[in-house]
């Protein structure tokens, strides 16, 4: 495994075309935080990072085992509560510790019963989108903010690949919110973080080919392009993903 956060910094040299949302479709409603998730979920992890018990674990397997949701609880959780719990999964950011996001995604899905259950539920995209939109509403571009945003964008992209019940409308709503998020990520005043988030492109790329499978022909290398399973891809790919995004949400 390799810390992909370090690799992400290699994208500093890339410059993406700045897109003016005012010149395109008005997406303000699609990107609104309609229901801020303020109430705690009905269940919480009994052992979490920072606790003495957590410090006693000697392996990732022990940590993952301690984070499983009891089956009797899992079946009784609302989709809203389960979404909150999955977003707070202590090992969620481990997906970025792999050379390929696809490997991290597989480990997450295999390790955590909460994610497997969540992806079977209805209206998951609505819950994930609301969390993402609310997170981006409060977003300040600093080192403490990037991991939660990356994690949410990863979940949106991963859910897109796993879910069988997503409609084209669902996909376009997610795509719109991710574009709003991208605009907030690249239009900022912090010179220390002057690169766009690669995870946003990863999520949008999977949505694009879900909505329009033939679009894969426009992406260099097709499904072998790094945008689909890692954080390594070039400016040409970024420009094409931006162009295809606008074509699909018009």
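^ structure tokens above, recovered residues below v
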């Amino acid at each position: 495994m390799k810390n992909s956060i370090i690799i992400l910094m290699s994208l500093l040299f890339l410059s993406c075309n700045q897109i003016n949302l005012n010149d395109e479709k008005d997406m303000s409603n699609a990107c609104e935080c309609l229901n801020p998730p303020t109430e705690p979920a009905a269940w919480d992890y009994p052992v979490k990072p920072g606790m003495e018990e957590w410090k006693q674990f000697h392996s990732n397997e022990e940590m993952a085992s301690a984070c499983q949701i009891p089956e009797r609880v899992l079946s009784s959780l609302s989709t809203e509560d389960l979404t909150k719990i999955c977003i707070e999964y202590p090992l969620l950011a481990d997906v970025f510790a792999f050379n390929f996001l696809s490997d991290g995604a597989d480990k997450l899905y295999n390790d955590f019963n909460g994610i497997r259950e969540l992806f079977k539920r209805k209206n998951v995209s609505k819950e994930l989108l609301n969390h993402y939109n609310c997170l981006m509403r409060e977003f300040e571009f600093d080192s403490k903010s990037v991991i939660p945003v990356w994690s949410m964008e990863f979940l949106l992209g991963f859910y897109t690949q796993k879910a069988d019940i997503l409609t084209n409308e669902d996909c376009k709503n997610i795509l719109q919110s991710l574009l709003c998020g991208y605009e907030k990520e690249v239009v900022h005043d912090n010179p220390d973080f002057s690169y766009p988030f690669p995870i946003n492109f990863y999520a949008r790329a999977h949505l694009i080919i879900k909505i329009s499978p033939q679009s894969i022909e426009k992406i260099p290398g097709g499904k072998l392009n790094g945008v689909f399973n890692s954080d390594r891809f070039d400016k040409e790919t970024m420009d094409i993903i931006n162009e295809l995004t606008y074509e699909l949400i018009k």
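Residues 4-32+44-249 form one domain.
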